[in-house]
Amino acid sequence: MDLLIHDAINRGALTALSSGINMVLFLAVPDTFWFFLGLAPSSKLYMNSMMATCAS
User: Fold this and answer.
1) Alpha carbon of residue 19 to chain centroid
2) Digit-coded pLDDT (tens) for 8-49
3) Nearest Cα to 36, choosing from 22, 17, 18, 50?
4) Please, which domain of life does this record's source organism belong to (predicted)?
5) How many secondary structure helices (H) and strands (E) does the chain include?
6) 5-35 exposure pattern, b = at least 16 Cβ within 10 A, e = fewer
7) 44, 18 in Cβ contact below 8 A?
8) Burial class, 43, CB count within 10 angstroms (exposed 0-12 / middle 13-18 / buried 19+)
């Protein structure tokens, strides 16, 4: 169980950080497209997380 918790935190940390940056930029600078800075790496991070989950 500890290994599953450790893996879940490690795989989701960067993805959560990217989503957090996206949300902060979306709320802090409305009516602009600065929030795309958080969206750009988000898809790659989600895919890497999914592939790591499938590989283990």
Assistant:
1) 5
2) 777 788 888 888 888 998 999 988 888 887 788 888 888 888
3) 22
4) Eukaryota
5) 3, 0
6) eeeeeebeebbeebbebbeebbeeeeeeeeb
7) no
8) exposed
